[in-house]
């Protein structure tokens, strides 16, 4: 059926046409923006259905298209799972197969918003300068082949170029990844990329494209056999695109949509003028604690976040880190950080959510700067609150050390799972003592802020914890000892 053919009948969901292209249709998008958009169309209608684009995988595209774009969301409540069918996606496109349909969608005047969840590493933007990282694989490819892009920035810029050329209004671009000031970061990167190809295009983007920032939140573990089994049991059909998630969900959006937007607020989103304080709170208190749980959990033998939270010492450590992270925040009217932290602890404890520490532990070099280093920079150089930040940094270093043997080979059962794996391996080859490990990893270019690197108390704090984590042959026992020392201090 054509899109126009779908525009019949009374159901606003059925009659709606696409108005959004979403790039990155992994589980998080299906648990979050797709659900808000579904609720918005059901509440107030509008041509806001989503065309989903997958940059790499093709399986999810085939699975969604075989189901008319519809899929099942299972919410894991303490009293059992609840399933819902989401129908806000009209179709999906695999960019890896053919980029042309993606560019056609981006050039279509009916498309007014591009939303994005591609994870931190897909941006290829230097966080400090806002310029593109020219040796990032997709940036490099797309600067050389701007009409046949395959990465995020190249696709956005080519889409905008086609619109400029056709005299079409630009779309609004909305990053929904866990990056600080994600709208500003993406804006800077897109403009810099465009100016490297065509200065006038870059100037036009700077003047006419809006990049609202957003804070997104919903804990969404990777789907497993039990996700698919529950989807079938609850809704009676096989669904290889089914996902499972927690009951909680939050979306705070900077309200800057010159070409209109769905009634996301009717679906529960909060529209604000300034998202940054919400982003900082979430990145530092939720994601920072998640990273601490992930690395300490990898060392301490906790497969899932809930296993860590079921351990009294571990739960205390996480509570302490939330308190320390809250100490780096400016007050936010209407928000009680202590209560926010308590609610996070409850969410982490949810026994129905099987969120693997290994999943959260990936891409550490992309995550630690905003989750751990930036807040640590806000604390006085020898403050007691630095302890849990130093522990998280040390735990990441210890996990990396353990996944690579002394000769610099990755242990058979492991994967570094980080876009800077080659550099990490090179840094750790022959680095054995805590000071060798710390100094070689802290020296990764454009990574740990100078303010921390030049802070002797920080270096001492990380090295002391690394020494405990690497002591003896029993990794779990060493992790427990480090945890006990932290909560006692
Ligand atoms: C997690 C996030 O994998 C991770 O790094 O910290 O995906 C986290 O679950 C979400 O941001 C929750 O909203």
Give the topology.
Layout: H1 3-6, H2 12-15, E1 18-23, H3 27-31, H4 33-44, E2 49-54, H5 59-66, E3 71-77, E4 80-86, E5 89-94, H6 100-107, E6 113-116, H7 137-144, H8 152-166, E7 172-175, H9 182-197, H10 199-208, E8 214-217, H11 225-235, E9 243-245, E10 250-254, E11 270-272, H12 276-300, H13 305-309, H14 312-326, H15 337-349, H16 357-361, H17 364-377, H18 386-403, H19 421-428, H20 434-442, H21 450-453, H22 456-469, H23 475-488
Parallel strand pairs: 1-2, 1-6, 2-5, 3-9, 6-7, 10-11
Antiparallel strand pairs: 3-4, 8-10
Helix pairs in contact: 6-8, 7-8, 8-9, 9-10, 12-14, 12-17, 12-18, 14-15, 14-23, 17-18, 18-22
The site of D-mannonic acid has 9 residues, from helix 12 and helix 16.
Q: What do you see in this structure?
A:
By secondary structure, this protein is of the alpha/beta class. The protein folds into two domains: 270 residues, 3-Layer(aba) Sandwich (Rossmann fold), CATH 3.40.50; 213 residues, N-(1-d-carboxylethyl)-l-norvaline Dehydrogenase, domain 2. Helix content is 50%, strand content 11%. Strands 5-2-1-6-7 form a five-stranded parallel beta sheet, sandwiched between helices. The N terminus is likely disordered. The site of D-mannonic acid has 9 residues, from helix 12 and helix 16. The site of D-mannonic acid (CS2) has 9 residues, from helix 12 and helix 16.
